[in-house]
Specification:
Chain lengths: ~260, ~280
């Protein structure tokens, strides 16, 4: 009896430990140090849309180089998830959204400091495996019965844009999956699980080793504006504003345009 | 966990260990009571959080939305199939680990727990690399039999089984190692083959342990998110289970996400509770 009980107990303890190790990993931002010097310092926590991953990482490094003593930490995810986190009190300094709707959710909740600025625009392309083996030239190629297509779910900006573009083209398309963000849709192409996905031009460009981005005219009807704002409860407002200024500066703009974004 | 205690309690008379009279229990030591209460609070408070934010007025209307029932049905169906798959493969594996000495057993035991440690999303990618269209086995499955698993309901079952099977194996192996082997030895002495011993002695002996493991396994499969969305994708009616529906609802509508979570919770607790009653009354 006692041995049996101990074995069971040990089993559950092991389970509990394993279960615990599975959670966590939640990055908590350090609050700004509140240094009185005119320069900026401390940590800036930027919540940015998944599609900004590459360009904002570069911009962050440039910003750190220009402002010694400042550290930029990013949380890249779907804009809607980020908006929810911010509205639930996540300690972020800056929010850069891939769509005005998600920014509106944050500002409507009174969590923005000032008016958001549109800093770039993005457009959809058809991402296909490198070399375009199926010879995709436009949206109608994706409606072939054996074509496997990944779209973003309508709840996230890239999915909303895809729906808009498909509606504009009057193309009825049955995807095999509705992915939770643009990077997930792209990775299905990279892994060869789908023949095509509608992703942002910038994401196709960032994955140019594995995918080709096919431009299609109807995407002009579904251009996404990207707004950025300093958050009202930013732990480090000075550095947050400096970061936003840096994004809007010529240096920041050139990083963004070379990644495939359009100027607003 | 009370389920498991009950399942364990049901076996006690069978094992034939004399139970201590309850009146000797005495006072509960504070050193155990305080952390126990804190532990309970820690587990229950998030549930309270959900209940506090539940939009009760719009609840009936949300419940009748067609997508909700589809996702719920798919979740129950896939979690059950995944549990059956885990039982078919996991019980023999647990028996092997508990009863057969073989070289590398410790390593195998460690490997079995890999899906527990692996972030489920990574598990999903790993499944794609094996069963995907260009995967190690997937390419052959597709070419030889025309079977593709990603983006199908079978893919959901596979992803859930991958993540949930260790829970079953660990529970069953623990039950097997804790069970009295003298019954099995007696059967062997009487001339029973190892297979007969397994089916006629071992299985009935550890049945409560298997049931407890199956419950853990089913519950884990029901809540599975990461491996499912990565391996099987997300499409309503085919691969969109409740956790996926909750995640996407969270993108736009916190209240809808809360309602969906609550439905999943109520249904799963109701099913588990009804099963528990059956186990307690069964011999």
């Amino acid at each position: 009896m006692a041995r049996r009980f101990r074995t069971t107990l040990a089993g559950f303890t092991a389970l509990a430990v394993v279960a615990l190790s599975g959670c966590g990993g939640d990055d908590t931002a350090e609050p700004g140090s509140g240094n009185a010097s005119p320069g900026v310092s401390g940590t800036v926590t930027v919540f940015a849309a998944a599609s900004l991953t590459e360009s904002f990482t570069t911009i962050g490094k440039d910003f750190e180089a220009a402002n010694p003593g400042v550290k930029v930490t990013f949380s890249f995810a779907g804009s809607s998830a980020l908006a929810t986190q911010i509205n639930q009190g996540a300690p972020a300094d800056v929010f850069a959204s891939a769509a005005p709707a998600n920014m509106k959710a944050v500002t409507d909740a009174g969590n923005g400091a000032g008016t958001p600025t549109t800093f770039v625009r993005n457009q959809l392309v058809i991402a296909v495996p490198k070399g375009n083996p199926d010879g995709v030239t436009g949206l109608t190629d994706l409606t072939k019965p054996d074509a496997k297509v990944a779209l973003c779910a309508e709840q996230v900006p890239c999915g909303a844009a895809a729906k808009k573009a498909l509606d504009a083209a009057s193309v009825k398309l049955t995807p095999v999956t509705l992915e939770q963000d643009v990077k997930a849709a792209l990775s299905k192409v990279k892994l060869g699980e789908v023949d095509a996905a509608l992703v942002y031009r910038t994401d196709a460009k960032a994955a140019t080793a594995d995918v080709d981005g096919i431009e299609f005219p109807e995407s002009a009807g579904a251009i996404n504006d990207y707004p950025i704002v300093v958050l009202k409860n930013a732990p480090n407002k000075t550095a947050a504003q400096a970061f936003v200024d840096h994004v809007l500066s010529d240096t920041g703009r050139s990083v963004l345009t070379s990644a495939g974004f359009q100027a607003p | 966990m009370s389920l498991l205690d009950d399942a364990g309690a049901a076996t006690r008379p069978e094992i034939g260990v004399s139970s201590h009279p309850r009146r000797r229990a005495g006072r509960v030591p504070l050193a155990l009571l305080v952390p126990a209460a804190l532990g309970l609070l820690f587990l229950v408070l998030p549930l309270v959080g959900l209940l506090v934010r539940t939009p009760w007025t719009t609840l009936p209307q949300r419940l009748t939305e067609p997508g909700v029932l589809t996702a719920l049905g798919l979740s129950l169906q896939t979690a059950t199939l995944a549990t059956l798959l885990c039982l078919a493969l996991g019980v023999p594996l647990a028996w092997l680990l508990a009863r057969v000495e073989f070289p590398g057993r410790r390593l195998v035991r460690a490997l079995v727990t890999v899906p527990l440690v692996l972030p489920p999303v990574v598990g999903g990618v790993a499944l794609l690399l094996v069963f995907g269209r260009r995967g190690l086995l997937g390419e052959w499955l597709d070419a030889s039999f025309g079977i593709t698993l990603p983006f199908t309901t079978s893919g959901v079952v596979l992803a859930e089984a991958f993540v949930a099977m260790p829970f079953l194996i660990i529970a069953v192996e623990g039950a097997l190692r804790g069970a009295d082997t003298r019954y099995e030895e007696a059967a062997a002495t009487l001339g029973a083959s190892r297979w007969t011993t397994f089916t006629h002695v071992t299985l009935p002996l550890v049945a409560p342990g298997i049931a407890a493991g199956a419950v853990l396994c089913w519950a884990r499969a029901l809540g599975e998110f990461g491996a499912t969305i990565t391996f099987a994708g997300n499409f309503p009616g085919r691969t969109q289970t409740m956790p996926l529906a909750v995640y996407l609802a969270l993108e736009t509508d916190l209240e809808a996400a809360i309602v969906l979570s609550l439905i999943l919770l109520v249904v799963s607790v109701a099913i588990l509770a009804s099963l528990r009653d059956r186990w307690i009354t069964s011999p």
